[in-house]
Amino acid sequence: MIAKKKIGLTPYLVLIGLIIMALVWLFPLYIAFINSFKPEDEFTKNGVLAFPHHWDFSKFGKFWGEVNFSRKLFNSMQVSILVSLIAVTLSFLTAYAIGIGKVKGRNWILGFFMVAFTIPQEALIYPLYSVSKMFNLYDSLWSIIIIFGVMSTGFGTYLLSSVMSTFPDELLEAARVDGASPWRILRSIVLPLLRPTLFVLATMFFIFTWNEFLIPLVMLPSNDHQTVTLSMAITTGQYTSDPTARAAAALIGFMPSVIFFLIFQRTLMRGITLGAVK
Question: Which PROSITE patterns does this UniProt record tie to the protein (predicted)?
């Protein structure tokens, strides 16, 4: 008779910890949800944590119309998708040269990229503003597309080059012996193996770009060029503030990224698993 393996206490503690972390992460979403449907007088009387007795849906339509949210939603989608494509493409090509091409000084180059993506955005605001003015890109979506595309490339290059440096030399050498050019190796060997990782990286860039606030605030003063995150600021003025409208704006603002994640959740998990195995 085979003895059953005794399960220790550690897995249960890990599970409890994960549940607590999930509840902490979901708590702000719950607060935004219940307060976005709560009338303002009920919010003032019962507070933030009280569940709404009367459900008010008017805040959503009012906010959507006041800020022209359809336009801002299109702007954010356009910027996030283009940044993801540009950053992943540049990261992939640069990492291929560093990780597999074995360029001279690769450690110094990787160190440069590592330092580059740790620089705070506040330190880059004025130089970026000056350069965008110089090239007539100020108040244009292309200004933040180029900025975020290049800034994201630092992290993407560092990550992908670390992965590519672990590729088996025997596989690459066999391809070279068979007469494969560097472009053929890139297209037929490296790209298929890294496709799941590239998709995960593109999703990360999409979500990060979607949630950016500071640089779009400086670079996009015109209402027609602003993004979803900037539209939330309209609910708070210098002397007035509507907390229930702010909650409705927050709920509308982050829902697209949550929906995007839920749609591609299975693909993301598969990409992470395959990337880890390879």
Answer: ABC_TM1
